[in-house]
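not sure who needs this but someone in the group chat was asking about Copper chaperone PCu(A)C from Sphingomonas changnyeongensis so here u go. i didnt clean anything up, its just raw.
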Amino acid sequence: MLDIIAAIIKGLGYLAALGGAGIVLARATLFPIGQLPGIGSVPAVRAAGALAMLCAVVTGGLFIARLGGPSDPAAIDAVLWSPLGAALALQLGGGIVLALMPGGRLAVIGGIGLLLSFGLVGHAATRGLSTSASVFAHVSAAAWWLGGLAVLFAGARAHPAPGYTALVDRFSRQAMWIVGVLVLAAVTTAALLLEWTFDPARIYDAGLAAKAGLTAVLLGLACLNRFVLLPRLGKAEWPRRWLVRAIMVEIAIFLGIFATTAWLTSFQSPHAGAHQGAHEGRAAPRGTGPIRITDAWAPASISGLGTGAGYLTISNAQNAPDRLVGVASPWAESVTLHRSQTVGAMTRMRAVAALDLPAGGQFVLAPGGYHLMFTGLYAPFVAGDTVPVILTFERAGRIEAILTIRPFGAAAAGHRH
Ligand code: HEM
């Protein structure tokens, strides 16, 4: 349930960020400096800013609650000093600027801040600067398109016919370049995330194909506006009415694309399958070294929150005690050791600095007790995927373990074997 709420908040966040920032950016390119369209764009930007703030606060709250509650300093730290924390700060700050100064020039900076937040978290952040930059370009162009449509929609009522025709003309000229950037950045981001492969049988890839299909319908409508309605605007009343209808359909398609994107980024992974093959050979229990790792797994993550738990059994074949002193993973900003403890009706989580392994003994990390805590996940944990972790032991040194992601319901059952 929590994951569905988080995905819905994500979708609303897209609407707020792209809608608010988009109107501000489109206003900046469509109107002479200092001149505001004088239509409903100011209240719309204000509302989008307020919604962006709300989404940032709720997402941060869910994140902290999941990590251990507001009284746990480790949880607050994990939010503040992770890419998610930075993204939420940009979303919150941008939202505040848009809500308080919706018509000013500062609004452009607030809008850009909102859009930058997309380059910091999500799948794009797993591949470094190039994917972050391409997703930022992609999202900014999409925002401009949506914002421009909103301005045209509002203007269809408020502007006199001649001025309005010039505005639509300016929009459609600029759109040719900006929508080109959107598509180019979309293809680049997809290619980088999928490592230049495309398999329609993979759910993530099929989701992208659905987005491409919806975008193609949008482009079809844009052509209708440009080549059929625009030349007739001002000459009769019907083209303007049809333009308003076409824009309404386009905005509805944007909502569909947001829903598809929120579902894709919350419940699907571009890595699913791709990494599995690569790690399959190494996923087997490692029995030869002084430390043996078995039953290494993680439940599919509650998406949108950027955290995950991991479990494993460590057997120490050395005839001396050892200590697990550090854990890291390329999939997360940080991995720490935690212990859940139930006192009365309250379950609390505490960070643990190290785990002691007796000579020849075993340490079990299992639900309800000790576990690995992943914070600032770069991609959600999707069932069937595998996640590598590096465990650092005082004596035995660094050991790699591969956690298999199990579906949420099956996770606990899987642990018992
Ligand atoms: C008007 C059309 C589109 C809109 C409004 C749109 C919107 C978005 C948004 C808001 C994100 C950010 C997701 C996040 O980081 O949380 C995103 C990411 C992305 N988009 Fe689009 N998009 C559009 C078209 C497309 C098309 C046609 C493709 C290519 C097939 C595409 C491919 C991608 C990819 C690969 C990502 C990264 C997803 C991830 O992190 O897993 N988009 N898009």
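also Strands lie at 291-299, 307-316, 322-328, 332-343, 346-352, 355-357, 362-365, 370-377, 386-393, 397-406. if thats useful
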